[in-house]
Amino acid sequence: MSAFTRISGVLHAESVSLVDVAAQFDTPCWVYSRVALEAALDEFQDQLIGFDALVCYAVKANSNLAVLDVLARRGAGFDIVSGGELRRVLAAGADPRRIVFSGVGKTAAEMELALTTGILCFNVESAAELERLNAVAGSLGKTAPISLRVNPDVDARTHPYISTGLKENKFGVAYEHARALYGRAASLPNLEISGIDCHIGSQLLDPAPFAEALDKILALVDQLATDGIVLRHIDLGGGLGIRYRDEEVPTVKAYLQPLLEKLKDRPLQVLLEPGRRLVGNAGLLLTRVEYLKPGEVRNFAIVDAAMNDLARPALYGSWHDIVAVVPRQETTAAWEIVGPVCESGDFLGHGRELALAAGDLLAILSAGAYGMVMSSNYNSRPRAAEVIVDGDRVHLARRRETADELYALERCLP
Ligand code: LLP
Protein backbone atom coordinates (compact mmCIF):
# COMPACT_ATOMS: atom_id res chain seq x y z
CA MET A 1 0.00 0.00 0.00
CA SER A 2 1.14 3.54 -0.57
CA ALA A 3 0.87 5.68 2.50
CA PHE A 4 1.82 8.76 0.48
CA THR A 5 -1.16 9.93 -1.54
CA ARG A 6 -2.62 13.19 -2.79
CA ILE A 7 -5.64 14.70 -1.10
CA SER A 8 -7.03 17.65 -3.12
CA GLY A 9 -3.77 17.62 -5.03
CA VAL A 10 -1.55 18.02 -1.97
CA LEU A 11 0.81 15.20 -1.07
CA HIS A 12 0.03 13.67 2.30
CA ALA A 13 1.65 11.10 4.56
CA GLU A 14 -1.35 9.06 5.71
CA SER A 15 -3.78 11.86 6.68
CA VAL A 16 -1.18 14.53 7.33
CA SER A 17 -0.37 17.18 4.73
CA LEU A 18 3.33 17.50 4.01
CA VAL A 19 2.81 21.26 3.90
CA ASP A 20 1.90 21.04 7.59
CA VAL A 21 4.87 18.79 8.34
CA ALA A 22 7.22 21.34 6.78
CA ALA A 23 5.57 24.19 8.70
CA GLN A 24 5.89 22.34 12.00
CA PHE A 25 9.29 20.65 11.64
CA ASP A 26 11.02 22.67 8.91
CA THR A 27 13.00 21.18 6.03
CA PRO A 28 14.87 19.07 5.14
CA CYS A 29 12.92 16.44 7.04
CA TRP A 30 12.58 12.69 6.75
CA VAL A 31 8.96 11.54 6.89
CA TYR A 32 8.04 7.92 7.63
CA SER A 33 4.63 6.26 7.65
CA ARG A 34 3.78 3.83 10.40
CA VAL A 35 1.09 2.14 8.36
CA ALA A 36 3.51 1.59 5.48
CA LEU A 37 6.09 0.05 7.81
CA GLU A 38 3.53 -2.29 9.30
CA ALA A 39 2.07 -3.25 5.92
CA ALA A 40 5.53 -4.09 4.59
CA LEU A 41 6.28 -6.34 7.55
CA ASP A 42 2.85 -7.97 7.33
CA GLU A 43 3.55 -8.93 3.71
CA PHE A 44 6.40 -11.11 4.95
CA GLN A 45 4.64 -12.43 8.05
CA ASP A 46 1.58 -13.43 6.00
CA GLN A 47 3.66 -15.67 3.74
CA LEU A 48 5.33 -17.29 6.72
CA ILE A 49 2.18 -18.46 8.49
CA GLY A 50 2.58 -22.14 9.31
CA PHE A 51 6.37 -21.92 9.34
CA ASP A 52 8.66 -21.63 12.32
CA ALA A 53 10.03 -18.33 11.07
CA LEU A 54 11.45 -15.04 12.25
CA VAL A 55 11.79 -11.84 10.23
CA CYS A 56 14.94 -10.11 11.47
CA TYR A 57 14.77 -6.56 10.13
CA ALA A 58 18.21 -5.40 8.89
CA VAL A 59 18.68 -2.42 11.16
CA LYS A 60 21.29 -0.79 8.92
CA ALA A 61 18.57 0.28 6.48
CA ASN A 62 16.97 2.66 8.98
CA SER A 63 17.87 2.53 12.64
CA ASN A 64 15.66 5.24 14.11
CA LEU A 65 14.26 4.05 17.44
CA ALA A 66 10.70 4.82 16.42
CA VAL A 67 11.06 2.65 13.31
CA LEU A 68 12.58 -0.18 15.36
CA ASP A 69 9.80 0.20 17.91
CA VAL A 70 7.04 -0.06 15.30
CA LEU A 71 8.59 -3.19 13.81
CA ALA A 72 9.38 -4.82 17.17
CA ARG A 73 5.79 -4.34 18.36
CA ARG A 74 4.65 -6.08 15.20
CA GLY A 75 6.82 -9.13 15.93
CA ALA A 76 10.05 -8.41 14.06
CA GLY A 77 13.44 -9.55 15.27
CA PHE A 78 16.59 -7.71 14.23
CA ASP A 79 19.73 -8.27 12.18
CA ILE A 80 22.52 -6.06 13.52
CA VAL A 81 26.06 -5.41 12.31
CA SER A 82 27.65 -3.48 15.18
CA GLY A 83 27.66 -2.90 18.90
CA GLY A 84 26.01 0.43 18.18
CA GLU A 85 23.10 -1.26 16.42
CA LEU A 86 22.82 -3.72 19.30
CA ARG A 87 22.50 -0.87 21.81
CA ARG A 88 19.91 0.78 19.61
CA VAL A 89 17.67 -2.26 19.27
CA LEU A 90 17.88 -2.88 23.01
CA ALA A 91 16.99 0.78 23.62
CA ALA A 92 13.95 0.23 21.39
CA GLY A 93 12.91 -2.70 23.57
CA ALA A 94 13.98 -5.63 21.37
CA ASP A 95 13.98 -9.17 22.72
CA PRO A 96 17.65 -10.38 22.71
CA ARG A 97 16.47 -13.84 21.61
CA ARG A 98 15.30 -12.30 18.34
CA ILE A 99 18.61 -10.68 17.41
CA VAL A 100 21.17 -12.02 14.94
CA PHE A 101 24.58 -10.42 14.53
CA SER A 102 26.09 -10.21 11.02
CA GLY A 103 29.20 -8.44 9.72
CA VAL A 104 32.78 -9.27 8.74
CA GLY A 105 34.59 -7.29 11.42
CA LYS A 106 33.08 -7.95 14.84
CA THR A 107 35.44 -6.72 17.56
CA ALA A 108 36.05 -8.62 20.80
CA ALA A 109 34.17 -5.88 22.67
CA GLU A 110 31.16 -6.24 20.38
CA MET A 111 31.20 -10.01 20.85
CA GLU A 112 31.29 -9.55 24.64
CA LEU A 113 28.34 -7.20 24.55
CA ALA A 114 26.33 -9.59 22.37
CA LEU A 115 27.24 -12.59 24.53
CA THR A 116 26.25 -10.91 27.76
CA THR A 117 23.04 -9.72 26.09
CA GLY A 118 22.27 -13.29 25.06
CA ILE A 119 21.46 -12.88 21.37
CA LEU A 120 19.96 -15.61 19.18
CA CYS A 121 22.92 -16.14 16.85
CA PHE A 122 26.24 -14.84 15.55
CA ASN A 123 26.52 -15.00 11.76
CA VAL A 124 30.22 -15.79 11.54
CA GLU A 125 31.96 -14.63 8.36
CA SER A 126 35.50 -16.09 8.56
CA ALA A 127 37.69 -18.77 10.12
CA ALA A 128 39.53 -16.11 12.13
CA GLU A 129 36.27 -14.76 13.52
CA LEU A 130 35.27 -18.26 14.60
CA GLU A 131 38.46 -18.61 16.66
CA ARG A 132 38.05 -15.19 18.22
CA LEU A 133 34.43 -15.79 19.12
CA ASN A 134 35.35 -19.11 20.76
CA ALA A 135 38.05 -17.38 22.81
CA VAL A 136 35.83 -14.46 23.86
CA ALA A 137 32.97 -16.78 24.82
CA GLY A 138 35.39 -18.95 26.82
CA SER A 139 36.72 -15.96 28.73
CA LEU A 140 33.16 -15.11 29.76
CA GLY A 141 32.27 -18.70 30.59
CA LYS A 142 29.61 -18.63 27.89
CA THR A 143 28.69 -20.59 24.78
CA ALA A 144 28.18 -18.64 21.57
CA PRO A 145 25.38 -19.76 19.23
CA ILE A 146 26.68 -19.57 15.66
CA SER A 147 25.87 -19.98 12.03
CA LEU A 148 28.36 -19.60 9.23
CA ARG A 149 27.58 -17.07 6.56
CA VAL A 150 28.28 -19.11 3.47
CA ASN A 151 28.99 -17.43 0.20
CA PRO A 152 27.10 -19.44 -2.42
CA ASP A 153 28.87 -17.74 -5.35
CA VAL A 154 25.74 -16.77 -7.25
CA ASP A 155 25.31 -13.62 -9.28
CA ALA A 156 22.65 -11.41 -7.72
CA ARG A 157 22.57 -9.28 -10.89
CA THR A 158 22.44 -6.00 -8.99
CA HIS A 159 24.70 -2.94 -8.53
CA PRO A 160 28.31 -4.11 -7.94
CA TYR A 161 28.59 -2.10 -4.70
CA ILE A 162 25.67 -3.98 -3.17
CA SER A 163 26.28 -7.45 -4.58
CA THR A 164 27.72 -9.66 -1.87
CA GLY A 165 27.34 -13.29 -2.88
CA LEU A 166 30.15 -13.59 -5.43
CA LYS A 167 33.55 -15.14 -4.77
CA GLU A 168 35.29 -11.81 -5.20
CA ASN A 169 33.28 -10.18 -2.36
CA LYS A 170 34.67 -9.81 1.15
CA PHE A 171 31.59 -11.43 2.72
CA GLY A 172 31.02 -14.89 4.11
CA VAL A 173 33.12 -18.04 3.93
CA ALA A 174 33.78 -19.71 0.60
CA TYR A 175 31.34 -22.46 -0.22
CA GLU A 176 34.13 -25.01 -0.68
CA HIS A 177 35.56 -24.26 2.77
CA ALA A 178 32.29 -24.21 4.67
CA ARG A 179 32.06 -27.92 5.45
CA ALA A 180 35.55 -28.08 6.95
CA LEU A 181 34.91 -24.92 8.91
CA TYR A 182 31.73 -26.38 10.39
CA GLY A 183 33.88 -29.33 11.45
CA ARG A 184 36.27 -26.93 13.14
CA ALA A 185 33.37 -25.09 14.84
CA ALA A 186 32.03 -28.40 16.17
CA SER A 187 35.39 -29.07 17.81
CA LEU A 188 35.58 -25.71 19.60
CA PRO A 189 34.32 -25.90 23.18
CA ASN A 190 32.64 -22.53 23.50
CA LEU A 191 30.59 -22.55 20.32
CA GLU A 192 27.25 -24.12 19.65
CA ILE A 193 26.31 -24.62 16.02
CA SER A 194 22.79 -23.38 15.44
CA GLY A 195 22.37 -22.67 11.75
CA ILE A 196 23.56 -21.54 8.37
CA ASP A 197 23.28 -18.12 6.79
CA CYS A 198 23.60 -16.49 3.40
CA HIS A 199 22.95 -13.05 1.93
CA ILE A 200 23.72 -12.47 -1.73
CA GLY A 201 23.10 -8.78 -2.26
CA SER A 202 20.67 -5.92 -2.12
CA GLN A 203 17.97 -4.46 -4.39
CA LEU A 204 17.46 -7.78 -6.18
CA LEU A 205 14.62 -7.67 -8.70
CA ASP A 206 14.82 -11.26 -9.88
CA PRO A 207 13.82 -14.02 -7.44
CA ALA A 208 15.87 -16.66 -9.32
CA PRO A 209 19.26 -16.02 -7.64
CA PHE A 210 17.66 -16.50 -4.20
CA ALA A 211 16.45 -19.96 -5.20
CA GLU A 212 19.80 -20.77 -6.77
CA ALA A 213 21.56 -19.80 -3.53
CA LEU A 214 19.12 -21.80 -1.43
CA ASP A 215 19.69 -24.95 -3.49
CA LYS A 216 23.41 -24.69 -2.85
CA ILE A 217 22.92 -24.01 0.85
CA LEU A 218 20.52 -26.94 1.24
CA ALA A 219 23.02 -29.27 -0.44
CA LEU A 220 25.50 -28.17 2.21
CA VAL A 221 22.93 -28.69 4.99
CA ASP A 222 22.59 -32.31 3.81
CA GLN A 223 26.35 -32.84 3.65
CA LEU A 224 26.71 -31.47 7.16
CA ALA A 225 24.03 -33.87 8.42
CA THR A 226 26.13 -36.78 7.13
CA ASP A 227 29.00 -35.31 9.17
CA GLY A 228 26.76 -35.43 12.23
CA ILE A 229 26.14 -31.68 12.25
CA VAL A 230 22.41 -31.11 12.34
CA LEU A 231 21.31 -27.51 11.96
CA ARG A 232 18.36 -25.89 13.67
CA HIS A 233 17.90 -22.84 11.47
CA ILE A 234 18.53 -21.40 8.04
CA ASP A 235 18.92 -17.65 7.50
CA LEU A 236 18.19 -16.51 3.95
CA GLY A 237 19.42 -12.94 4.42
CA GLY A 238 17.74 -9.91 2.90
CA GLY A 239 17.99 -8.28 -0.49
CA LEU A 240 14.52 -8.08 -2.01
CA GLY A 241 14.31 -4.88 -4.05
CA ILE A 242 11.77 -2.08 -4.16
CA ARG A 243 10.42 0.13 -6.93
CA TYR A 244 12.30 3.41 -7.22
CA ARG A 245 11.28 4.29 -10.78
CA ASP A 246 9.62 1.76 -13.04
CA GLU A 247 11.31 -1.47 -12.02
CA GLU A 248 9.30 -4.66 -12.17
CA VAL A 249 9.42 -5.65 -8.53
CA PRO A 250 8.55 -9.18 -7.41
CA THR A 251 5.86 -9.47 -4.76
CA VAL A 252 6.99 -10.86 -1.42
CA LYS A 253 4.93 -13.91 -2.28
CA ALA A 254 6.71 -14.44 -5.62
CA TYR A 255 10.02 -14.14 -3.81
CA LEU A 256 9.21 -16.36 -0.83
CA GLN A 257 6.97 -19.08 -2.25
CA PRO A 258 9.68 -20.87 -4.26
CA LEU A 259 11.97 -20.73 -1.23
CA LEU A 260 9.35 -21.95 1.23
CA GLU A 261 8.47 -24.75 -1.17
CA LYS A 262 12.03 -26.05 -0.83
CA LEU A 263 11.93 -25.67 2.95
CA LYS A 264 8.50 -26.94 3.86
CA ASP A 265 9.47 -30.51 4.70
CA ARG A 266 12.59 -29.63 6.60
CA PRO A 267 12.71 -29.19 10.36
CA LEU A 268 14.51 -25.87 10.07
CA GLN A 269 13.54 -22.54 11.57
CA VAL A 270 13.54 -19.94 8.76
CA LEU A 271 15.16 -16.56 9.37
CA LEU A 272 15.01 -13.62 6.96
CA GLU A 273 16.89 -10.32 7.08
CA PRO A 274 14.97 -7.85 4.90
CA GLY A 275 15.96 -4.20 5.23
CA ARG A 276 15.08 -2.04 2.25
CA ARG A 277 11.82 -3.83 1.48
CA LEU A 278 10.43 -3.02 4.93
CA VAL A 279 11.35 0.65 5.10
CA GLY A 280 12.36 1.94 1.64
CA ASN A 281 8.96 2.96 0.34
CA ALA A 282 7.76 3.90 3.81
CA GLY A 283 9.82 7.08 3.89
CA LEU A 284 10.52 10.25 1.93
CA LEU A 285 12.77 13.25 2.25
CA LEU A 286 10.92 16.55 2.34
CA THR A 287 12.90 19.51 1.00
CA ARG A 288 12.31 23.10 -0.06
CA VAL A 289 13.52 24.92 -3.16
CA GLU A 290 15.86 27.69 -2.07
CA TYR A 291 16.82 29.14 -5.45
CA LEU A 292 16.12 28.62 -9.10
CA LYS A 293 19.07 29.13 -11.37
CA PRO A 294 17.98 28.66 -14.99
CA GLY A 295 20.89 28.46 -17.42
CA GLU A 296 21.70 28.07 -21.09
CA VAL A 297 22.76 24.46 -20.77
CA ARG A 298 21.04 23.39 -17.60
CA ASN A 299 18.44 24.63 -15.15
CA PHE A 300 19.37 24.20 -11.52
CA ALA A 301 16.91 24.01 -8.66
CA ILE A 302 18.91 24.39 -5.47
CA VAL A 303 17.10 22.72 -2.61
CA ASP A 304 17.85 22.61 1.11
CA ALA A 305 18.58 18.86 1.16
CA ALA A 306 21.89 17.62 -0.17
CA MET A 307 24.18 14.65 -0.70
CA ASN A 308 25.04 14.74 3.00
CA ASP A 309 21.36 13.93 3.67
CA LEU A 310 20.63 11.47 0.87
CA ALA A 311 23.92 10.05 -0.40
CA ARG A 312 22.50 7.35 -2.70
CA PRO A 313 22.29 9.38 -5.95
CA ALA A 314 25.87 10.66 -5.55
CA LEU A 315 27.23 7.34 -4.33
CA TYR A 316 25.49 4.81 -6.57
CA GLY A 317 23.93 6.99 -9.24
CA SER A 318 20.59 5.81 -7.91
CA TRP A 319 17.32 7.31 -9.02
CA HIS A 320 14.70 8.61 -6.58
CA ASP A 321 11.42 10.02 -7.81
CA ILE A 322 11.05 13.73 -6.99
CA VAL A 323 7.59 15.26 -6.91
CA ALA A 324 6.07 18.60 -5.96
CA VAL A 325 4.08 18.55 -2.73
CA VAL A 326 1.69 21.12 -4.22
CA PRO A 327 1.97 20.79 -8.01
CA ARG A 328 1.84 23.95 -10.14
CA GLN A 329 -0.17 24.29 -13.32
CA GLU A 330 2.56 26.21 -15.21
CA THR A 331 4.57 24.55 -17.96
CA THR A 332 7.35 22.33 -16.81
CA ALA A 333 11.09 22.48 -17.51
CA ALA A 334 13.87 19.99 -16.95
CA TRP A 335 15.60 20.74 -13.65
CA GLU A 336 18.78 19.52 -12.06
CA ILE A 337 17.76 19.04 -8.43
CA VAL A 338 20.91 19.87 -6.48
CA GLY A 339 21.89 20.68 -2.90
CA PRO A 340 24.04 23.43 -1.41
CA VAL A 341 27.11 21.21 -0.86
CA CYS A 342 30.27 22.33 -2.63
CA GLU A 343 30.66 19.36 -4.97
CA SER A 344 29.43 18.77 -8.49
CA GLY A 345 28.42 15.30 -7.31
CA ASP A 346 25.88 16.89 -4.99
CA PHE A 347 22.75 16.08 -6.91
CA LEU A 348 19.49 14.42 -5.96
CA GLY A 349 18.08 14.11 -9.46
CA HIS A 350 18.99 15.04 -13.04
CA GLY A 351 16.70 16.55 -15.65
CA ARG A 352 13.44 16.27 -13.73
CA GLU A 353 10.38 17.66 -15.52
CA LEU A 354 8.76 19.93 -12.97
CA ALA A 355 7.06 23.33 -12.73
CA LEU A 356 8.95 25.04 -9.92
CA ALA A 357 9.21 28.30 -8.02
CA ALA A 358 11.49 29.22 -5.14
CA GLY A 359 9.93 28.19 -1.84
CA ASP A 360 8.17 25.13 -3.28
CA LEU A 361 8.24 21.90 -1.33
CA LEU A 362 9.52 18.75 -3.00
CA ALA A 363 9.32 15.15 -1.82
CA ILE A 364 12.17 12.79 -2.66
CA LEU A 365 10.49 9.43 -2.62
CA SER A 366 11.51 5.91 -1.59
CA ALA A 367 14.06 7.36 0.81
CA GLY A 368 13.17 5.35 3.91
CA ALA A 369 16.03 2.88 3.43
CA TYR A 370 19.71 3.83 3.46
CA GLY A 371 18.75 7.50 3.70
CA MET A 372 19.18 9.06 7.12
CA VAL A 373 21.49 6.23 8.25
CA MET A 374 24.00 7.13 5.54
CA SER A 375 23.77 10.87 6.05
CA SER A 376 26.71 12.88 7.31
CA ASN A 377 27.56 16.33 8.58
CA TYR A 378 29.61 17.23 5.51
CA ASN A 379 29.86 21.01 5.09
CA SER A 380 28.90 21.22 8.81
CA ARG A 381 25.30 20.61 7.93
CA PRO A 382 23.24 19.48 10.92
CA ARG A 383 21.39 16.28 10.16
CA ALA A 384 17.71 16.66 9.33
CA ALA A 385 14.80 15.87 11.63
CA GLU A 386 12.90 12.60 11.31
CA VAL A 387 9.17 12.32 11.89
CA ILE A 388 6.83 9.38 11.82
CA VAL A 389 3.22 9.81 10.81
CA ASP A 390 0.58 7.64 12.41
CA GLY A 391 -2.89 8.33 10.98
CA ASP A 392 -3.55 12.00 11.61
CA ARG A 393 -0.73 12.40 14.13
CA VAL A 394 2.94 13.25 13.61
CA HIS A 395 5.60 12.18 16.09
CA LEU A 396 9.04 13.71 16.14
CA ALA A 397 11.30 10.66 15.91
CA ARG A 398 14.60 12.56 15.94
CA ARG A 399 14.96 16.26 16.36
CA ARG A 400 17.10 18.26 13.98
CA GLU A 401 20.73 18.59 15.07
CA THR A 402 21.95 22.04 16.02
CA ALA A 403 25.13 23.54 14.58
CA ASP A 404 26.86 23.72 17.96
CA GLU A 405 26.21 20.03 18.56
CA LEU A 406 28.36 19.36 15.53
CA TYR A 407 31.54 20.59 17.24
CA ALA A 408 30.57 19.83 20.83
CA LEU A 409 33.06 16.94 20.94
CA GLU A 410 35.94 19.02 19.57
CA ARG A 411 38.54 21.14 21.37
CA CYS A 412 40.86 23.94 20.25
CA LEU A 413 44.55 23.61 21.20
CA PRO A 414 45.47 24.67 24.77
N1 LLP B 1 21.67 -8.88 5.69
C1 LLP B 1 22.96 -8.57 5.43
C2 LLP B 1 24.02 -9.46 5.93
C3 LLP B 1 23.26 -7.42 4.71
O1 LLP B 1 24.53 -7.11 4.45
C4 LLP B 1 22.22 -6.58 4.25
C5 LLP B 1 22.51 -5.35 3.51
C6 LLP B 1 20.89 -6.94 4.55
C7 LLP B 1 20.66 -8.10 5.26
C8 LLP B 1 19.71 -6.12 4.12
O2 LLP B 1 19.64 -6.02 2.74
P1 LLP B 1 18.35 -5.36 2.06
O3 LLP B 1 17.18 -6.23 2.35
O4 LLP B 1 18.19 -3.98 2.64
O5 LLP B 1 18.68 -5.32 0.62
N2 LLP B 1 23.53 1.26 1.06
C9 LLP B 1 23.08 0.44 -0.04
C10 LLP B 1 22.61 -0.93 0.43
C11 LLP B 1 23.64 -1.70 1.21
C12 LLP B 1 23.15 -3.05 1.69
C13 LLP B 1 24.10 -3.68 2.63
N3 LLP B 1 23.68 -4.93 3.19
C14 LLP B 1 21.99 1.20 -0.78
O6 LLP B 1 21.69 2.34 -0.43
O7 LLP B 1 21.46 0.69 -1.76
Automatic annotation (TrEMBL):
Its EC number is 4.1.1.20. The keyword Lyase applies. Substrate binds at residues 276, 312, 316, 343, 370. Keywords: Amino-acid biosynthesis, Decarboxylase, Lyase, Lysine biosynthesis, Pyridoxal phosphate. One of its GO terms (biological process) is lysine biosynthetic process via diaminopimelate. Gene3D superfamilies: Alanine racemase (3.20.20.10), Lyase, Ornithine Decarboxylase, Chain A, domain 1 (2.40.37.10). Residues 31-368 form the Orn/DAP/Arg decarboxylase 2 C-terminal domain. Its cofactor is pyridoxal 5'-phosphate. The active site is at 342 (proton donor). Pyridoxal 5'-phosphate binds at residues 239, 273-276, 370. One of its GO terms (molecular function) is diaminopimelate decarboxylase activity. The modification N6-(pyridoxal phosphate)lysine is found at residue 60. It catalyses: meso-2,6-diaminopimelate + H(+) = L-lysine + CO2. PROSITE patterns: ODR_DC_2_1. It is an enzyme of class 4 (lyase). It comes from the Bacteria. Pathway: Amino-acid biosynthesis; L-lysine biosynthesis via DAP pathway; L-lysine from DL-2,6-diaminopimelate: step 1/1. Homodimer. NCBIfam families: lysA (TIGR01048). Specifically catalyzes the decarboxylation of meso-diaminopimelate (meso-DAP) to L-lysine. Belongs to the Orn/Lys/Arg decarboxylase class-II family. LysA subfamily. This is Diaminopimelate decarboxylase. It comes from Candidatus Accumulibacter aalborgensis.
